[in-house]
Amino acid sequence: MVSGYGTVLHVEDDPNMSFVVQRRLAKAGYEVVALDRGRPALDVADRRPVDVVILDLMLPDITGERFLDLLREKSNLPVVVTSARAEVETRVELLHKGADDYLVKPFELSELE
After folding, report:
1. Which of 1, 43, 92, 98 has the greatest number of C-beta atoms within 10 Å?
2. C-alpha 48: how far from its chain's center?
3. pLDDT digits (tens, 9 = 90+) for 86-96
């Protein structure tokens, strides 16, 4: 599908959350590449044009924090972190590490869009 708004790389291991976000963003005109692990997602970010990354922090293979560190070594892609971790310290730390935004789960889909 050729998207009107760009390509979103959604890195989320919860299949229900992934499905809901993917469906909403696709309806809004985005192409969504959904992966449930960080390392394959880093490979996708290296191999194809991506406009933004939506990143869960709790992944089964590497942490979202590590994903962000590795991505920032080679890219300035915008990253929106989504996590149930709502502590201010966590949010500030991720923003300092290079995240562009941080949404606490559960969030409104319209806010993400």
Report:
1. 98
2. 15
3. 999 999 999 99
